[in-house]
Write a structure and sequence with these properties.
Blueprint lengths: L12 H12 L28 H4 L14 H9 L4 E6 L2 E2 L5 E3 L2 E5 L3 H16 L7 E6 L9 E6 L8 H31 L1
Antiparallel strand pairs: 1-4, 2-3, 4-6, 5-6
Length: 195
């Protein structure tokens, strides 16, 4: 079977271009990414290396600060301004050292085009052999009584196929390259939409 393209009711090319412009224009260099919860004042560079982001990005900073290893990736995802992170985990091992929980970031997103460029951007890092394992974007939900759909960025592996150290190195790599890889993916898709 061949997968056919939509002939009716497909995406509006102008609408797609507008959604891609949202990604490409998503950075707000003069605003704090962490938002009003950020306690830092004065001239400083807002970055994923800020020691305060674990608390500043949390909706309940005193009881539930972000785990420090995943905080830079949450920062970079929020920095793109089209994704709204809502939960994260840096990954954890069982007491015997085997992998127990995968690192991941859950987020809200209103556009399938935004999800596509995120997924393609992270996939490009794996294709370029910058990641230890492939990562993916998946549809999920938080609680049974929450009707909002969320999405997850996480490794595409079984728990017994790798170690936590390799996955946490991937967190660092994705955080360092997320903006550029997502922008490159958005630009490529934008060129196709203009063709």
């Amino acid at each position: 079977m061949r997968i056919g393209r939509h002939t009716k009711g497909g995406p509006d090319p102008q609408g797609l271009r507008d959604e891609l412009k949202e990604v490409l224009g998503s950075e707000r260099p003069n605003e704090k990414v962490c938002g009003p919860a950020c306690q830092r004042t004065g001239p400083f560079k807002c970055s994923r290396d800020c020691p305060d982001i674990a608390k500043a990005l949390s909706s309940d900073p005193e009881r539930f600060p972000l785990e420090t290893r995943i905080a830079p990736l949450v920062f970079e995802l929020k920095r793109l301004a089209v994704f709204e992170p809502c939960w994260s985990c840096e990954g954890h091992n069982h007491p015997d050292g085997t992998l127990w929980k995968l690192p991941q970031v859950w987020f809200y997103c209103r556009s399938v085009a935004h999800l596509r460029v995120l997924g393609e951007g992270v996939k490009g890092l794996h294709v370029a052999e910058k990641l230890n394992v492939p990562w993916q974007v998946s549809v999920t939900h938080s609680d049974s009584d929450n009707t909002d759909t969320t999405f997850s960025l996480h490794p595409n592996i079984d728990l017994d196929t790798t170690n936590l150290g390799a996955l946490q190195k991937d967190i660092d790599t994705i955080a360092a390259h997320l903006r550029d890889s997502v922008f490159a993916s958005a630009l490529a898709l934008s060129r196709q939409a203009h063709a």
